[in-house]
Amino acid sequence: EVHVVESGGGLVQVGGSLRLSCSASGFAFEYAAISWFRQAPGKQREGVGCIGKNNYTVLAAPVKGRFTISRDNAKATAYLQMNDLKPEDSAVYYCGESCSPSTWGQGTQVFVSA
Predict the structure, then answer these.
(1) What distance lies between CA 61 and its chain's CA centroid?
(2) What confidence tens digit (pLDDT) does each residue in 62-81 have?
(3) Cα–Cα distance between 106 and 22 in angstroms, integer?
(4) Cβ distance 43 to 49 under 8 Å?
(5) In the prediction, which pLDDT does 27 show?
(6) CA 4 to CA 20: how far, in whole Å?
(7) Is 30 helix (H, G, I), strand (E, B) or coil?
(8) Separation of CA 40 from chain center
(9) What band does 87 get if pLDDT is binned at 50, 70 and 90?
(10) 8-state DSSP, 98
(11) Pairing state of beta strands 46-51 and 34-39?
(12) Which of 13, 2, 6, 3 is nearest to 79 (CA)?
């Protein structure tokens, strides 16, 4: 059974940084793509980016140049490094197996204060 747990969210000021973690189990992590999504209040969930098994990464336009995705296969964990955070980055962040996951964790809340 696919299981992911997101962590690392919190309150940060504009321009600050956070690193989110996605701990995974129940599937062959080293062969899977891992994606990050986010959902702000009243908005649809949107893709942030996805990292393939070969570390090829795709990022959404609003976060390109500020966010990076990495992975540690030995720990079955993926990371979302977020720099130069803006108020519009405030959302619940989710990770998932594949670039179009069907199973979600509980998410981790990020709030960027102006």
Answers:
(1) 15
(2) 999 999 999 999 999 999 99
(3) 11
(4) no
(5) 95
(6) 13
(7) helix
(8) 14
(9) very high
(10) B
(11) antiparallel
(12) 6
Total number of residues shown for the chain: 114
108-113 vs 10-13, strand pairing mode: parallel
What does the block give as tokens for 90? 């405030």
Query: What are 63's two structure tokens?
Result: 């976060």
d(CA 103, CA 15): 31
What is each CA distance from 48 to 1, 18, 74, 80, 81, in whole angstroms?
A: 24, 15, 24, 9, 11
Q: Which two tokens stand for residue 98?
A: 């594949």
CA distance 48 to 85: 14
* CA nearest to 30, candidates 99, 68, 77, 80: 77
Mean pLDDT for all residues in the chain? 97
Residue 73 main-chain phi, psi, to 5 deg: -65, -30
Q: Which two tokens stand for residue 20?
A: 């989110």
